[in-house]
User: What shape does this take?
Amino acid sequence: MTAMATHPPARPYTVHDLAAMPDDGRRYELIDGVLLVSPAPGTRHQKIVMKLGSYLDTVCPDDLHVLSAPFAVQPSASTEVQPDLLVARDEDLTDKNLPVAPLLVVEVLSPSTALNDLNTKKAVYQRMGVPSYWVVDPADPVLTAYELDADGQYQQVAEVKGTDVFEAARPYPVRIVPVELLGKLR
Assistant: This one.
């Protein structure tokens, strides 16, 4: 099954329409009023989200939080995304969602979401002003990191594979080895 983008016949979707979506294990997101529906992720995807989220949380400063999907980043009435992982400031969070750009977004690719994660969602995160965007391909595994430049455009700052080491400085210092994110699944 692939991620679907659909338009309702009469008007674009809003975040209020998301409350009526079924609780069926799929992820429902909005980008500029367009509904994106993704199936439940697979084993490698979930293992990487769990391992990376746990590690990021372990070294996270006290004024920041690491959260995983489903958690809404809702910068407007027509856009709500649920990154696989995010890092946000304590003062930016509400009990319900994150109404501003997180400091870091991580998307783990799935066959059904890869094109959206690498194109559509990357463009949305850039437009929102998310300073750091990481994409993890669980197949190899490979971590590709992007950071906003002075013009607000993403520039690739790293691509690490297998046992290579990624030494991130933003949003806080962290050392990541992609193959370790698979745990026992190697």
Observations:
- The chain has a mean pLDDT of 90.
- Residues 146 and 156 are 4 Å apart (CA to CA).
